[in-house]
Structure formats: structure tokens, C-alpha cells
Amino acid sequence: MSAEPADLLSLARRAADAAVATVRERPSALEVDTKSSSTDMVTQMDRAAEETIRAVILADRPDDRIVGEEMGDRPPPTGADDADAVTWWIDPIDGTTNYVYDHPGWNVSIAAELGGRTVAAVVADPTHGRTYSAVRGGGAEVSDRPGLLRLVDPPPLSHALVATGFSYDPARRHRQGLVVAELLPRVRDIRRMGAAALDLCSVAAGRVDVYFEVGLSPWDIAAGSLVAEEAGARVAAIDGGPLGTGSVLAAHPALFDEVIGLLDELGAASV
After folding, report:
1. What is the domain range of residue 216?
2. What's the maximum distance between 2 C-alpha atoms anywhere in the chain?
3. Does residue 211 contact residue 202 with C-beta atoms inside 8 Å?
4. Looking at the structure, do residues 233 and 129 belong to the same domain, yes or no?
5. Within 13 Å, how many C-alpha atoms sit on residue 128's CB side?
6. Model pLDDT for residues 93-150, shown as the tens digit of each residue
7. Domain shared by 14 and 132, yes or no
8. CA dist 9 to 131, 203, 229, 240, 261, Å?
């Protein structure tokens, strides 16, 4: 299979559809374990979804690298041709806590990276019947709207709806809560969905004006960040540097620098 972004997007969609079919029918009893803390949950359905995604991808592209939240890094086979080397970033259930509680706000997130840049992305939101997708340079879309997603002019920061998220570490959560307490009277309101990919897609779709969070992994933001970028958002680390592991800020370019200044004033990057 070629490494053309459109072909990678098609494969990501098939893998996401298969994963959604796997996890949509919730078992009568979820087997819930914990990971980084007592509140960081993982279920047998997270693992089953990732196994499904890997199987779909490897059936077409057996020489690709796959990095998933639950099953780690599967490097390319020795001797694989790296001319079209693709890395897949998988979050099989982003928002596992929501999934466990049968609460809206979980998704299947898949991104394809080529040459160090995400070039194709899918974020499937089964609860709301929406699938977001994007190809670098080709725009972003969502299945329940016609045409491409495009940001409209933002409100002033004082009237911006801001999404964020919190760490599983209790001490860090406390510090993040203090930041939000200072931020709240300076914006319209705060939203906390509990799934980074959907927060980024919410910026793209105009459901929130700003999203920021500290303490993330690459699979949390790889797909959603491309959807937001292709809709016209500026996406970077919370300090304004290149997007990477740890933090993300997404907002309309006209609002971005002001948000950076406010978050810096509140010490958000240091939590």
C-alpha cells in the first residue's frame, strides 16, 4: 500500500470503524485495572480495540511502526524499507473513564506520521455519531456536517469558552485546579470533556474556542491536533514552542498569543 496521505487516511478510517465495532457493545462486566495512578483506568476493551486497530493496519502495511497506549511500541521488522516509513499513533479508547462510566466523551484516535509529521488522522466519536478526519494540506471534516471545517472569527478572550483536562497525579491535579480557579473569572467558562482528541476536535468544530492541557502523551494529541490545524487553529505546546510530548494549546490564530500570555501569567506550563 502506498504512503500517500489519502491512502493512509482510508486505512485509518477502516481501523477506527473496526475498533468502534469492537467496543460499542459494552460487556456486562468491565474488567477495570489501573495504570499510572488509582484513578487512571484501563479495561479489556481498551486492549481489544488496540489489537483490532493493529490487525487492520498490519494486514495492509506490515512494515510500519505502531505505537499504542496499551501495547507500546511495535518497531518495523528488521530490514524493512524505510523509504515510506510510517508511524501510527493509536489511542484505542481516549477517555477511558468516560467509557467506564458510560458517559459521553470517549473516542478512538488514530494518526499516521510520515517524515516526522502527522499526515492523516481520524478521531471517531461513537457516542455522538461523529467521525473527524484530516489530511495534511487537504483540510479537516466531520461526518455530520457538509464541507470542510473552518474556524470563524473568535470572541474576545473574556468571552472565550475554554476546554482543559487534568492529570491523574493528585499533586499535579491540585496545581492544575489552582490555575483553572484563576482562569475561570477571566473567560466565559471552562469545559472538561475528559478526552484530549475530542477537545482538539471541538476547537476545530467551534464547540470551544480554546483548549489547553499539560501532561499528555503523543497518542493523546497526534490525531486531534491535525484536525484542529487543518480547520485553521494554531496548535503548539503551551509555551508556544513546537508541539511535542507533554502539553498542547489550540486556538484561533487571532486569539493564540493572548491565551499564551494569560496562561504564562498563571503559571500553567509549570504545573
Report:
1. 157-270
2. 57
3. yes
4. no
5. 18
6. 999 999 999 999 999 999 999 999 999 999 999 999 999 999 999 999 999 999 999 9
7. yes
8. 12, 21, 16, 28, 36
